[in-house]
Amino acid sequence: MPSAPTPEPAPMQPRPDDTAADTDTLVDMGIIDEQPTPPEPDPEPADEPPADTPPE
After folding, report:
1. Are the CB atoms for 19 and 12 separated by under 8 Å?
2. Rounded CA gap, 46 and 26, in Å?
3. For 5-56, how does the pLDDT look when each residue is reduced to its tens digit (9 = 90+)?
4. Are 14 and 22 in contact (CB under 8 A)?
5. Helix (H), strand (E), coil (C) string for the chain
6. Which residues, including other chains, have CB under 8 Å from residue 47's CB and lie 6 or more apart?
């Protein structure tokens, strides 16, 4: 009885929600360097009136 050929593993394609977990795993394995998380920009103050407000 001939042995079946070993199927090739599917290429790893991280899902968007798994990106952080995959990155941590790769960092732990020493494959990649940890990327620092950029700081979130502060929301700019709204100097202009809302678009639905008619001009004076």
Report:
1. no
2. 41
3. 676 666 666 555 555 566 677 667 665 566 666 666 666 666 666 666 665 6
4. yes
5. CCCCCCCCCCCCCCCHHHHHHHHHHHHHHCCCCCCCCCCCCCCCCCCCCCCCCCCC
6. none
Q: Which of 9, 41, 11, 37 is nearest to 23 (CA)?
A: 37
Q: Tell the residue number behind the tokens 């990649």, with chain if given.
A: 32
Which tokens belong to 15?
A: 């899902």
The token pair that represents 13 in the structure block: 């394609």
